[in-house]
Amino acid sequence: MTAQSDTQGSVTTVYKVSGMSCGHCEGSVSGEISELPGVTSVKAVASAGEVTVVSEAPLDEFAVRAAVDEAGFELVGQA
After folding, report:
1. CA distance 26 to 58
2. 74 neighbors 17 (Cβ within 8 angstroms)
3. What is the mean pLDDT of each run of 10 residues along the chain (79 residues)?
4. Predicted TM-score (pTM) of this structure
5. Using an 8 Å Cβ cutoff, are 18 and 76 in contact?
6. C-alpha distance across the termini of the chain, in Å
7. Cβ distance 33 to 64 under 8 Å?
8. Residue 52 buriedness (CB in 10 A; 0-12 / 13-18 / 19+)
């Protein structure tokens, strides 16, 4: 697992997402993931195909996958 805890007890995880190509894509993915319980920050970068998520605790990958699917993209896995 590539999730990393920082000194404040939050967890940062980077996910690979396929299909993002623009700022609108980034916003769609970020919006869906940010609604998951415990998520404090989301940054999607279409050019890298990555989404960095900061949360209070490790997230269930199934929940993240469902959120990405809802936005219309595919979660490839963790970076």
Report:
1. 22
2. yes
3. 63 97 98 98 98 97 97 96
4. 0.89
5. yes
6. 9
7. yes
8. middle
